[in-house]
Design a protein that fits this description.
Length: about 300
């Protein structure tokens, strides 16, 4: 049956095209951002002064044009297709970001970067296909959000602690995971607020979730730029691309009471897929960085 005669197939086709367009837009944005972020002195994680320096760079500001386009296309893709279809397609943008970043930075393309991205992307696709997350409630309770904070907070703290003194590639992976974690939580907060927008738009300004979204989103952007400073572009972006949907599923299960399919061999597939993603992150952390190592910031020699 053709897409024209099958509404579901037609929706999936729109989702695929939008997701691939979003991946390409994000790739251009990331390459432009990384070319500028690496020129700045390495900043401590979550230091807002890095953004204040970057907004003075025209190329970095230009990167937000494709970033905005990519976000819109991602939202369109998710409105027509499921997470398990859209998210693996988004990671394909890294195959474009790698040569773009190499050209902007006037550095050679490394084949190892493609291998790392391919392994991580395959693991993510297998995990999402096996998990088959199913919808839950529209509005999590306060206890649900507190439950998210109880596991997300320690994970974020551990990533930031070890990133403080780690070498470039390991630092990029840890900050990428931390950034992806915050992006996943921000997406979950946005999902809850979007449900309320449909019947009482003004009420979102009285919700703590709105201000949590602003803080979380800003922190994610700062950590993203921190990660881009530390290594070749494939390393942090691969970590972000894996952590973001994984955290979204974890929040969905713990706060939105969504369910994943654990029948048959699916749990074993998810375990193997998780190991593949961890292996990709380990390989990325052992990648030799072509960005000059700078000493970890301290109180005396911190960022400008």
């Amino acid at each position: 049956m053709t897409a024209a005669g099958d509404p579901a197939a037609a929706d999936n086709l729109v989702a695929v095209v939008a997701a691939l367009g979003s991946a390409a837009a994000f790739a251009v944005s990331a390459a432009l951002e990384q070319s500028e972020a690496k020129l700045e002195k390495r900043a401590p994680p979550l230091d807002p002064r890095l953004l204040l320096r970057l907004i003075r760079r025209p190329r970095w500001l230009l990167a937000w044009v494709p970033e905005t386009i990519g976000t819109g296309l991602q939202a369109l893709a998710l409105s027509f297709g499921p997470l398990i279809l859209v998210e693996p397609l988004l990671i394909t943008g890294l195959f474009l970001a790698i040569p773009l970043a190499a050209a902007l930075n006037r550095r050679p393309v490394h084949r190892r970067d493609y291998a790392v991205v391919a392994l991580g992307g395959a693991g993510l696709a297998a995990f999402l296909l096996a998990a088959q997350p199913r919808p839950g409630i529209a509005q999590p309770s306060v206890a649900g959000w507190l439950g998210v904070a109880l596991w997300a907070g320690p994970v974020l703290a551990v990533c930031l602690f070890f990133a403080w003194c780690a070498g470039n590639s390991t630092r990029a992976v840890l900050l990428g995971v931390a950034s992806g974690l915050l992006y996943g939580i921000a997406a979950s907060l946005l999902k809850a607020l979007t449900a309320e927008l449909s019947f009482d738009p003004a009420a979102i300004f009285a919700r703590g979730q709105t201000y949590a979204l602003l803080v979380t989103g800003l922190a994610a952007v700062i950590l993203n730029q921190n990660a881009l400073q530390s290594s070749r572009i494939a390393v942090p972006l691969m970590a972000i691309a894996i952590a973001d949907p994984a955290v979204s599923i974890a929040v969905g299960v713990t706060a939105f009471h969504e369910q994943i399919d654990t029948s048959g061999v699916r749990p074993w597939i998810m375990v193997c897929a998780g190991l593949a993603m961890l292996a990709a992150m380990w390989l990325a952390s052992t990648t030799q960085s072509d960005i000059r190592q700078s000493p970890p910031p301290s109180r005396n020699n911190g960022a400008r």
